[in-house]
């Protein structure tokens, strides 16, 4: 007779490292094993016991039900429709549309690249409590100066449309970063940057920053005391001064003013102020907002740790769900844009649904 225990799981995607990413879970069982098959032949057996914060946030067990597995062949030869993952009893793990529609693309076969991301450094001058940089085993490093010259020539040859300077690290921490920005600007690239604006920039640095079209500033909250607790080593005053000084420098140089985006990693410490945060940003001239979903790392011993918004008490979580609708309206009224990371609204809705079902 068939085991009535639910079979939960999905083959989600092929990640950037050409690994098959998925999850599998059977409630009440100590561990879940799946067999991976390609063209009808088993090629690997794997335990789904890796942690994913989105699974825990969605109420899937402890969240330790994910797995990553190598492709059974070269990426250029792989066909998703011929891949299967099965539970011990033969039950098929669902395959997502994203996985089934995946196709290998060799980017270097095209003479044009629309967007490139460059990370000058993976070091950072902040130690945000939720970031991988704050984990004790994290080691950042800088791009070799010689590599940049070679990369610049490749970018020119590929007719890049836009370049985003970003990563785990803080670009403005790297000595001479502005010289590299100037070189990219002089080559005619449209530039974007992600920065914490924690350190006051010099006049030379402001001249380079003014040549960047879109500046994504990491500002989790407009409350200075909470900002220092969560991001550490940062001043809201410095952020606002750098924004104003960059806009003023662009005007001085006869350049279009940069477009600012404020990004916030949503967590239990900042969620309650999200409406006031947007109002404050709008008052500062910001019209574009990005709300990121928290990926939970192990708690730190020397910091104020944060939790996913789905851990908020009922009243606060319901209020936050309402606030998301309010800020959408506020931003639209000011002609701005809002980008809420995939998974955040869904996780909130699922958590509220689960809580209501338990009442």
List strands and helices in order, with pairings.
Layout: E1 8-14, E2 19-25, E3 33-38, E4 41-47, E5 50-51, H1 53-57, E6 64-70, E7 83-87, E8 94-95, H2 97-100, E9 115-118, H3 145-157, E10 162-165, H4 177-186, E11 190-195, H5 203-209, E12 214-218, H6 224-231, H7 236-252, E13 259-265, H8 274-283, E14 288-292, H9 314-333, E15 337-340, H10 344-358
Parallel strand pairs: 1-8, 9-10, 10-11, 11-12, 12-13, 13-14, 14-15
Antiparallel strand pairs: 1-2, 2-6, 3-4, 3-7, 5-6
Annotation keywords:
5-stranded mixed beta sheet, 10 helices, Immunoglobulin-like, TIM Barrel, 2 domains, 359 residues, single chain, alpha/beta
Can you walk through the features of this model?
There is one protein chain. The protein is an alpha/beta fold. It folds into 2 domains: 8-100, Immunoglobulin-like; 107-358, Aldolase class I (TIM Barrel). Helices cover 30% and strands 22% of the residues. The strands form 3 sheets. It has a 7-stranded parallel sheet with strand order 9-10-11-12-13-14-15, covered by helices on one side. It has a 5-stranded mixed sheet with strand order 5-6-2-1-8. Strands 4-3-7 form a 3-stranded antiparallel sheet, with no helix packed on it. β13 (259-265), α8 and β14 form a beta-alpha-beta unit. α5 crosses α7 and α8 (274-283) runs parallel beside α9 (314-333). It is globular, with a radius of gyration of 23 Å.
- Global shape: globular
Spatial gap, N to C terminus: 33 Å
CATH topology of the largest domain: TIM Barrel
Number of strands: 15
| Secondary structure: helix percent | 25-40%
Number of helices: 10
- Overall tally of domains: 2
Mean pLDDT over the full residue set: 91
Strand order of the largest sheet: 9-10-11-12-13-14-15
Low-confidence segments: none
According to CATH, what is the class of the largest domain?
Alpha Beta
CATH architecture classification of the largest domain? Alpha-Beta Barrel
Question: Mind summarizing the main beta sheet?
Answer: 7 strands, parallel
CATH superfamily of the largest domain: Aldolase class I
- Rg over CA atoms, rounded to whole Å, is 23 Å
């Amino acid at each position: 007779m068939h085991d009535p225990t639910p079979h939960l799981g999905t083959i989600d995607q092929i990640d950037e490292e050409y690994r098959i990413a998925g999850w599998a879970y059977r409630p009440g069982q100590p561990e879940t094993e799946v067999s991976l098959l390609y063209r009808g032949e088993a090629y690997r057996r794997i335990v789904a016991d890796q942690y994913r914060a989105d699974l825990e946030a969605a109420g899937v067990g402890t969240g330790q039900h994910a797995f990553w597995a190598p492709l059974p062949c070269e990426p250029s030869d792989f066909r998703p429709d011929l891949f299967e993952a099965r539970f011990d009893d033969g039950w098929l793990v669902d395959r997502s549309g994203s996985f089934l529609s995946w196709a290998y693309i060799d980017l270097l076969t095209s003479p044009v690249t629309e967007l490139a991301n460059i990370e000058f450094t993976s070091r950072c001058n902040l130690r945000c409590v939720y970031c991988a940089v704050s984990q004790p085993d994290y080691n950042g490093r800088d791009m070799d100066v010689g590599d940049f010259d070679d990369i610049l020539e490749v970018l020119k040859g590929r007719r890049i449309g836009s370049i985003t300077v970003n990563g785990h690290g803080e670009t403005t921490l790297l000595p001479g970063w502005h010289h590299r920005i100037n070189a990219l600007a002089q080559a005619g690239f449209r530039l974007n940057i992600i920065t914490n604006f924690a350190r006051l920039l010099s006049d030379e640095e402001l001249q380079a920053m003014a040549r960047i079209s879109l500046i994504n500033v990491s500002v989790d909250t407009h409350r200075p005391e909470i900002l220092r607790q969560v991001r550490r080593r940062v001043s809201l005053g410095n952020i606002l001064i750098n924004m104003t000084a960059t806009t003023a420098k662009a005007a001085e140089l006869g350049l279009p003013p940069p477009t600012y985006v404020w990004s916030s990693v949503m967590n239990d410490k900042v969620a309650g102020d999200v409406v006031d945060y947007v109002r404050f940003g709008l008052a500062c001239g910001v019209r574009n907002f990005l709300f990121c979903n928290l990926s939970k790392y192990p708690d730190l011993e020397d910091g104020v740790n944060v939790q996913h918004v789905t851990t908020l008490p009922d009243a606060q979580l319901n209020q936050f769900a309402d606030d998301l609708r309010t800020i959408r309206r506020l931003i639209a009224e000011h002609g701005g844009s809002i980008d809420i990371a995939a998974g955040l609204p869904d996780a909130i809705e699922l958590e509220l649904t689960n809580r209501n079902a338990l009442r």
